[in-house]
Specification:
The complex is a heterodimer. By secondary structure, chain A is of the alpha/beta class. Chain A has three domains: about 200 residues, NAD(P)-binding Rossmann-like Domain (Rossmann fold, 3-Layer(aba) Sandwich); about 45 residues; about 80 residues, no CATH class. Chain A is about 40% helix and about 20% strand. In chain A, the strands form two sheets. In chain A, strands 3-2-1-4-5-6-12-13 form an eight-stranded mixed beta sheet, sandwiched between helices. In chain A, helix 3 crosses helix 13 and helix 10 packs across helix 11. Chain A is globular. Chain B is α/β, with parallel strands linked by helices. Helices cover about 40% and strands about 15% of the residues of chain B. Chain B has three domains: about 220 residues, 3-Layer(aba) Sandwich (Rossmann fold); about 200 residues, Orthogonal Bundle (Arc Repressor Mutant, subunit A); about 150 residues, Structural Genomics Hypothetical 15.5 Kd Protein In mrcA-pckA Intergenic Region, Chain A (Roll). Classes of the chains: A alpha/beta, B alpha/beta. Chains A and B meet through helix 1, helix 2, helix 3, helix 13 and strand 13 of A and helix 1, helix 3, helix 17, strand 7 and strand 8 of B. The complex binds zinc ion (ZN). The site of zinc ion has 9 residues of chain B, from loops. Zinc ion binds next to loops of chain B.
Chain lengths: ~350, ~600
């Protein structure tokens, strides 16, 4: 359905509680959005659930994997049936996902990502791409294509009690409404490296300003070698910085173990973590034994509550992105559920 | 079984095996409940009981992902338990209960005592306060959670170690002066309140003379000295009683015409006569129905036209359209009252009642020159609808289950010493900023002024035989022996306010406990120190076939707290002055942000389903 066609009475009744929050205009924007989700693991399951419920136009799932025993940890669209182990995952779960909301068009594609890369024009059909659980080379390759095609990209992954969201949304305009202060905001004001107020519309009656804000993003490889973090944190924050940030980025250097019982070599992880701290200009002291143990043990594992927090946050940000009301996440969010922290860094 | 390899890695073997063996309770199976149950089942809990009294509606389906269209009108608790079967990979035993958690017959205290942890996923203050109190009686840890729109929070509660649910005051719904509602409305909400709580209520609902406080003589007198205004209100009210009689002995057209004429013309004209009201206000303009009569008759006969009006709930209706809606709604309500139903209560999901309230509120708005609203908007105000989305519920439920499962790090089987886990836990608030998504705050101890946690609580356990045989004197002696009251001076209050014993009133001493009226299972017994030195203890009377040797909780009563006994006895009121000392993890925050979670916390109600 097109953006211009009004919501039907049935749609309004179904989406009542969310329309009351974000309005008809956002609901229409969602209804016209076409999204690709790469890999439907633990966090992918949560994202697809949330976006199907939200009422997007269409979602394509791209995943060539087969069902593994450990997938039963957090991938709740899988039927409780051991005989499906070893079978391609998407055909098994697609009907269960469709049940959530039959207004959303759902396609599945079991082509390996590497084959898709051979003809990247495939990506053109989507307004937005969400990639989950990619390794570094896949992520960089995908980002190269999304950059070339100007398609916003979200990347996310889970490591037990930890997780991340990395965004390259190219650029994004939003028009938040703010109460006007004593001094009116000026157009063409740079708030930070990536955020600019490009326009200010003042409404005297309500004493509000409608701002137009431009958020600019950097390509993902740049995030991996950024020197920006020390500039964004004060001394105290730098001192108590959680090891989850350097260790999550360290894990991009490791492959997911084939056997789910296996752990990541702690000393290799330590060496990599320290190296990354030095590279990012942050204290190596954050790499504690406790965190090394947790990360070597929990790397690439899936846990439903953490998948729910991360998948909820990502889906919410996608809705935010599409609604154009506020700025989306720019450009790294770390979830540390041991410290109950979700910092966002602009790298 | 390798399906749980990840769980073992993440939780560790000890915690995982405790989780596997434990029995927990989840109260509420709505927006948070659906998400939370998924997380708890996938954490591998041994046994989960689920309580909810609600049934499923269409507007649940945008977020309560365990429900389908064909589940509408079915029980939420029974449906969720069945729905998670498809991913119950770790063989959790699911025990759903369809019922009201506050029903002490269905859920006696002995039932509550089987759970080692309780998760609240509730949408209303009354039930949350009730669960909170049960947890205080039993010293069961509780995870409290709530969401509204993009906001949400969790609060772990370790009874008597951390703040309880009542320790911070909650926002109560805004009320308006009677005069504003009845005589001088100036906002849409005033007209909606009038339409729902006064007009609709008086015409169709169960008769009670109070009219929800909107005809309360004392309240009106406290607001205005204007004799004319007061007299007018009484007259208006009495005529409404006459109008109600018309429902039963007139046809639809007569009833409608009389209704519109009285409410939107005569009453308004009389108000205009009270000149003092309009000195600094814009005068209302009475509605003259004859102007609209012809068009009204034409549209009422035109099905396509009618469908068009009724079909668009987001449009702001004209005067004529509101009259059409009002006619159809009052006709339908009249027919229902003439039929099976003896009274009708306002329900946002009952189309007739919502249409009546929408149209009459709008007509009043037109008369008083107030902005007219769409049915969609009026439904939200009249029905107290709180926006709710899947993502916020997913995030908050994720934190709720994470933090709840953290409790099983330690073995609490023998002790209820929460000092360590309390230090390690925090409240979490969604708080979306450019540099972070959530804020967490360390827990603090109970608020001294909290009416709920400033008194001690526990169970008084007796067998039916003991209730029959033991005297009140036995109980008084037992209490004095157990808690060391100086001068043996105690006062016992049974239920809400019945004094059954103090030093000057010993008439009941020789009576058997069972002969004291109200001394029954589930009733409360408040024991106060007449010397005012020791804190009060509220005992929950639990009558069971057999109990371990203890009759009374083995605790030491502390000194009396500042709060007065009157306000604490049986009431669930929150302190009027909040001593909000949410401690933000000190090093993380700058001063500006410290105040924010407190405001949030107060603001947060839970989602209404
Ligand atoms: Zn309290």
């Amino acid at each position: 359905m097109s953006k211009d066609e009004a919501l039907t009475a049935d749609e309004i009744a179904l989406y009542d509680r969310q329309i009351r929050l974000w309005g008809m205009a956002t609901q229409l924007r969602l209804r016209s959005a076409k999204v690709l989700i790469v890999n439907v693991g633990g966090v992918g399951t949560e994202i697809v659930k949330n976006l199907v419920l939200g009422g997007l136009n269409s979602i394509e799932l791209l995943d060539s994997s087969v069902v593994k025993e450990e997938d039963f940890a957090a991938q709740f669209f899988l039927p409780n049936d051991d005989s499906i182990i070893g079978q391609p995952k998407l055909p098994i779960i697609v009907e269960k996902i469709k049940e959530l909301n039959n207004r959303v068009k759902l396609n599945i594609n079991t082509t390996p990502l590497e084959s898709i890369f051979e003809d990247p024009s495939y990506f053109k059909q989507f307004d937005l791409i969400i990639a989950t659980e990619l390794n570094r080379s896949q992520l960089f390759a995908l980002n190269q294509h999304t950059r070339a095609l100007s398609i916003p990209l979200y990347a996310t992954g889970l490591h037990g009690l930890f997780g991340y969201i990395i965004t390259d949304l190219i650029e994004h305009y939003s028009t938040p409404q703010k109460e006007a202060g004593n001094q009116l905001r000026e157009p063409n004001t740079k708030i930070n490296r990536s955020k600019t107020i490009t326009k200010v519309d003042f409404d005297k009656g309500s004493n509000t300003e409608t701002l137009t804000i431009l958020d600019e993003f950097v390509p993902i490889p740049q995030i991996f070698k950024s020197k920006e973090l020390p500039n964004q944190l004060n001394k105290r924050q730098l001192k108590r910085l959680s090891a989850s940030f350097p260790l999550i980025f360290s894990l991009f250097e490791f492959e997911k173990p084939l056997n789910p019982e296996d752990v990541i070599d702690k000393e290799l992880l330590r060496a990599k973590g320290i190296q990354l701290c030095e590279q990012y200009g942050i204290p190596t002291a954050s790499i504690t034994e406790e965190y090394l143990d947790m990360f070597s043990n929990q790397a690439f594992t899936e846990y439903s509550p953490v998948a729910a927090v991360l998948g909820g946050t990502l889906a919410q940000d996608v809705i935010q992105f599409l609604s154009k009301k506020e700025s989306p996440i720019n450009n790294v969010l770390i979830l540390d559920s041991v410290k109950s922290e979700m910092p966002i860094y602009l790298l | 079984m390798a399906k749980d390899t990840y769980l073992k890695k993440i939780l560790g073997n000890d915690r995982y095996s405790r989780v596997r063996q434990t029995k927990i309770l989840m109260v509420g199976a709505g927006g948070i409940g659906c998400e939370l149950l998924k997380d708890l089942v996938l954490t591998g809990y041994g046994e989960i009981h689920i309580v909810d009294l609600d049934t499923i509606t269409l507007s649940n389906l945008n977020r309560q992902f365990l429900f389908r269209h064909h589940d509408i009108d079915k029980s939420k608790s029974l449906t969720v338990a069945k729905a998670v079967d498809s991913f119950n990979y770790f063989d959790t035993k699911l025990v759903p209960h369809h019922g009201n958690i506050m029903d002490a017959k269905q859920f006696p205290i002995t039932w509550w005592s089987q759970f080692s942890y309780i998760f609240n996923a509730l949408d209303n203050l009354e039930a949350r306060r009730y669960v909170n109190r049960m947890c205080l009686y039993l010293k069961t840890p509780l995870m409290e959670s709530g969401t509204t729109g993009f906001d949400g929070q969790i609060q772990p509660i370790y009874p008597y170690y951390s703040e309880c649910f009542d320790c911070q005051s909650k926002v109560t719904p805004k009320t308006f002066p009677v005069c504003t509602i009845r005589s001088t409305p100036s906002q849409p909400v005033h007209c909606i309140t009038w339409a729902k709580e006064f007009l609709f209520h008086q015409l169709f609902d169960e008769v009670d003379s109070s009219a929800g406080g909107l005809n309360d003589a004392a309240k009106i007198k406290s607001e205005t000295d204007d004799k004319d205004e007061i007299e007018n209100m009484t007259k208006e009210f009495n005529e409404l009683v006459d109008l109600r009689k018309l429902i039963f002995n007139s046809d639809a057209r007569t009833f409608f015409t009389e209704l519109v004429n009285k409410i939107f013309k005569v009453d308004v004209e009389r108000l205009l006569l009270i000149e003092t009201l309009w000195k600094s206000r814009q005068k209302p303009v009475p509605l003259i129905i004859t102007q609209y009569e012809q068009d009204l008759i034409r549209i009422l006969d035109d099905q396509t036209e009618l469908q068009k009006i009724f079909g668009d709930e987001t449009k702001v209706w004209s005067t004529l359209e509101n009259l059409v809606i009002l006619f159809k709604a009052s006709e339908s309500l009249q027919r229902r009252l003439q039929g099976e139903e003896s009274f009708l209560s306002f329900d946002k999901d009952d189309e007739d009642t919502l249409n009546f309230v929408t149209a009459s509120a709008n007509l009043r708005s037109i008369i008083f020159n107030i902005e007219v609203k769409s049915k969609f908007d009026i439904k939200q105000i009249a029905g107290n609808i709180i926006p709710a989305i899947a993502t916020t519920n997913a995030i908050i439920s994720g934190f709720s289950s994470l933090s709840g499962t953290n409790y099983f790090k330690y073995d609490f089987e023998e002790t209820q010493d929460f000092s360590r886990i309390y230090q390690e836990s925090s409240s979490i608030f969604i708080s979306i900023k450019p540099n972070k998504y959530i804020t967490s705050a360390s827990l603090v101890g109970p608020n001294e002024r909290c009416p709920t946690s400033s008194i001690a609580r526990g169970l008084l356990k007796l067998t039916p035989v003991e209730v029959k045989e033991l005297s009140l004197k036995w109980l008084v002696d037992k209490l004095i022996e157990q808690y060391d009251y100086a001068d043996e001076a105690v006062a016992l209050i049974l239920g809400k306010s019945r004094l059954i014993y103090d030093v000057d009133f010993d008439d009941n001493l020789e009576k058997r406990l069972g002969d004291l009226s109200g001394f029954t299972d589930g009733e409360l017994l408040m024991v106060q120190d007449d010397d005012g030195e020791l804190e009060s203890i509220e005992l929950y009377i639990s009558i069971v076939e057999d109990h371990e040797s203890d009759y009374l909780p083995q605790i030491k009563l502390g000194p009396k707290k500042a709060i007065t006994e009157e306000s604490s006895n049986g009431s669930s009121g929150a302190p009027d002055v909040a001593t909000d000392t949410i401690v933000i993890d000190e090093e993380d925050e700058d001063l500006v942000e410290v105040t924010e979670p407190v405001v949030k916390k107060r603001k947060i109600e839970v989602e209404v389903l």
